[in-house]
Known about the structure:
Blueprint: E1 18-29, E2 32-43, E3 47-52, H1 58-65, E4 73-77, E5 82-85, H2 97-101, H3 111-120, H4 136-148, E6 154-158, H5 166-183, E7 186-190, H6 194-200, E8 203-208, E9 211-217, H7 229-241
Parallel strand pairs: 3-7, 3-8, 5-6, 6-7
Antiparallel strand pairs: 1-2, 1-4, 8-9
Adenosine-5'-triphosphate (ATP) binds at residues 29, 34, 52, 54-60.
Amino acid sequence: MKKATPQVVPAPVIEPAAAVRVRGLSRRFGSRDVLQNLDVDIVAGEFVALLGASGCGKSTLLRILADLDREFTGAVEVPQRRAVAFQAPRLLPWKTVWRNVVLGLPGGGGRKRALEALEEVGIGHRAEQWPKVLSGGEAQRASLARALVREPDLLLLDEPFAALDALTRIKAQELVGELWQRHGCAVLLVTHDVEEAVLLSDRVLVMKDGIIAHEEIIDLPRPRDVADPAFAKIRGNLLDWLGVRHGTHGNS
Ligand SMILES: Nc1ncnc2c1ncn2[C@@H]1O[C@H](COP(=O)(O)OP(=O)(O)OP(=O)(O)O)[C@@H](O)[C@H]1O
């Protein structure tokens, strides 16, 4: 029998695993449609930033993904393991830092696990202290540690750096970038800061009129350089989408 000629068979196109799949999502408050038939996908391990004018519905979307709001219509698929960190660290003042980190953890979290997470975010030495002695940056790190011990497949961050001073903010941004690379979870970062979005993410979404009006793939090598002309071009484009004219302070 004739021997079959070996053939190179093209591999089927493998769709990357989805971490978030949202279809036709709508949310109304009173007579106002904040989300209007919105679709969004996030791939496993992807870092996505969400920009948009104040009040456009970014936090509303994030809260729905976090299962903190169920008054919506549409289809929302998210991984079981997810964690949220907000602008305010939301630590319970009557529990020590490490107890805050493992609070509500399914299966009862241990001190060792909390310590590891606190070490990872650089505040292991604060484990036994009360939240009130932490600086703003430290409290935010504790909040990140609390999210990380949950080993999330999806990390939802709602303006986690907004209340920090400029230097602390840069360090916290670097930390989030490192944690993301180490843990490999998908991240959705709600932010007002276009530069932060371009520095950290694989893709930036711009929300407008209740939908994702624009998406920008950030195909720049990491670590990113704000002085890179390609960075500046993407930043300018996003500012245009946000209605902030390039090089001016006026609104278009
Ligand atoms: N629980 C609620 N009850 C009534 N209205 C709400 C509620 N939550 C949000 N809204 C309204 O929905 C709209 C979107 O709010 P949301 O907080 O999602 O916006 P945002 O884009 O995150 O804003 P910001 O950037 O200022 O944080 C706003 O007009 C807000 O007033």
